[in-house]
UniProtKB/TrEMBL annotation:
Keywords: Membrane, Transmembrane, Transmembrane helix
Species of origin: Bradyrhizobium arachidis
Name of the molecule in the record: Uncharacterized protein
Chain segments annotated as transmembrane: 6-29, 41-63, 75-95, 102-122, 134-158
Length: 167
């Protein structure tokens, strides 16, 4: 193992992924499956609309001053774009725009790749989760929840169907 490997942090992230997936399978997916497609997508987009929290990685004192500004900027701006795409998707679904589903695809692909990129950069470039400071809970708790929500969006998108049933 690399010298900067942090087993407690890795286990907390794995635990958050496992718990998020189990809760989603038992409680969230059955409820979403019973909802009209647009309503289910709108609910999941709403959860992702809070991704502006990633901007905090660029706030002095929230993270260690030793955290790479390139990493912080890429994570922060990527999250802000994802949050904006989630909000636009919510509007498109609510107002039944003809481009609603393509916008959700864009939001979901962007959001998923942004999170995976942030994890990749964190593992390959940062390696010390202590540099996240107060932001440690974002990759340890919030990102696993977000990634599971993106999987749910993909499942709904790939299922297709029932836009007409949405209120």
């Amino acid at each position: 193992m690399p010298p900067d490997f942090n087993l407690p942090f890795v286990l907390s992230v794995v635990g958050a992924f496992l718990t998020s997936a189990v809760v989603a399978a038992i409680y969230v997916w059955p409820a979403l499956r019973a909802m009209p497609r647009y309503a289910a997508l709108r609910l999941l987009a709403a959860f992702n609309a809070f991704r502006f929290l990633g901007m905090n990685f660029m706030v002095a004192g929230f993270v260690s001053s030793e955290l790479s500004p390139d990493f912080a900027g890429q994570v922060g701006w990527g999250d802000l774009i994802a949050a904006t795409l989630a909000l636009v998707s919510m509007a498109a679904l609510t107002w039944r725009w003809s481009i609603a589903v393509p916008l959700v695809w864009i939001f979901n692909v962007w959001g998923t790749l942004d999170l995976l990129n942030a994890y990749y950069m964190g593992v390959t470039k940062i390696q010390n989760p202590g540099l996240f400071g107060a932001g440690i809970y974002i990759p340890a708790v919030y990102v696993p929840l977000l990634l599971v929500s993106h999987v749910l969006v993909f499942m709904i998108l790939l299922r297709g169907g029932a836009e007409a049933k949405a209120p």
